[in-house]
Amino acid sequence: MLSAVSRPYIAASVPVLREHGVTITLCFYRRLFAAHPELKNIFNMPNQESGIQQQALASAIFAYAANIDHPDALAPVISRIAHKHVSLGIKAEHYPIVGKHLLDAIAEVLGAAATPALLAAWSEAYGMLADALIAAERALYQAHGVEPGEYRSVTVVRKQKESETVTSFYLQATDGAVLPSFQPGQYISVAVDVAELSLRQLRQYSLSDAPGNGHWRISVKREEGSPAGLVSNLLHDQYREGDVLWVSPPCGDFVMSTETADTPLVLISAGVGVTPMMSMLQGSLQQHPDRPVNFLYATLDGRHHPLKRELDRLLLQHGRMQSYVAYERPAANDCVPQDYQQQGHLRLATVPDALLPQNAAYFLCGPAPFMHAQHQALLARGVAERQIRQEVFGPSLLGHLQ
Ligand code: FAD
Asked: What's the confidence (pLDDT) of residue 396?
């Protein structure tokens, strides 16, 4: 519990953080990387360049301050961050470094308003968060049987083009050992040396296949934006069958943990957000073949429809599974209803009711506006918040607590 002395200072910081949060986090990262340039190997540097990481951290600190007396609200978020940190190899010794530069940044930006009492309150609040994360991360490292920061080497045993922009990489342990199992929906971090930055960069990729198949599979979308995505393009262009990658243990709490075998599943995804859903779909069909699973998917057109053949094969094999696909701009050779059932963006309001049962567990993954729209549509249909879980393919931290 935060002390009674510190509580009013943290509460009073909420509006200040709302106003100055991004300035503080910009200052924080500048100080951190000046003192510890080696930490650039852990952080996603394009996210620094674009400013998205600073915004995410600012909203995280703000949300933490606003919810500091609500441990129930913080607990699931701490769990999610701990999983991400374990995939990144964060160590307990990183926390005092981050704490020092965060407090220095608050002092620099707020100037005279950063009184010793305010800084002491933030030191206490940061210490509480750090302790909770360190404990959660220690438990995860122990469960995986790895040291913090320990990656394992895997060999690309097969590379398979899945669509215009997505390619799958099938991975096996380089030393011939059996790769650990994982829970459908989890991801690994992949470490790649980026010559143009003279840095190692880490990216997360969801495991896109069921566990127990003798390999791990990731399916990577080539990020074609401007500038082009660093790691995804390197993986597509430079990693071939036989090459070695360094990867983290499987992490993430976007998993089917609380559902029973008779809870229907509804998996709703768009674009490359299909990857954890394919794993969940296959995992569910393997473990509980009688459980109804509805697979809703949105993409541009048939040429941008990864893993379609796999999905079609599963549909033929499993009578309890239903699929519903929206193509935003179908090509001339994309056919209704074989390839897609809805044109334009996926609109749940027009999806048949049978695909969206009231008692189902709902899993969402895709671009942020897509997830926001589906989330709102589900709530409007009377689905409860607790029935909906989401995975964000980018920095999110505590932002949704605000
Ligand atoms: P980056 O180099 O990191 O660039 C990302 C984007 O930022 C690009 O669009 C780029 O154009 C833009 N950008 C770069 N610099 C700037 C700048 N200065 N200003 C403005 N914009 C800029 N991806 C998959 O393909 N498959 C998956 O299964 C998958 N699973 C994920 C699971 C999780 C839990 C998470 C968090 C992410 C997942 N991702 C997945 C996303 C993946 O981790 C990477 O973010 C993605 O591959 C892009 O990485 P990159 O290095 O290619 O791009």
From this structure: 62
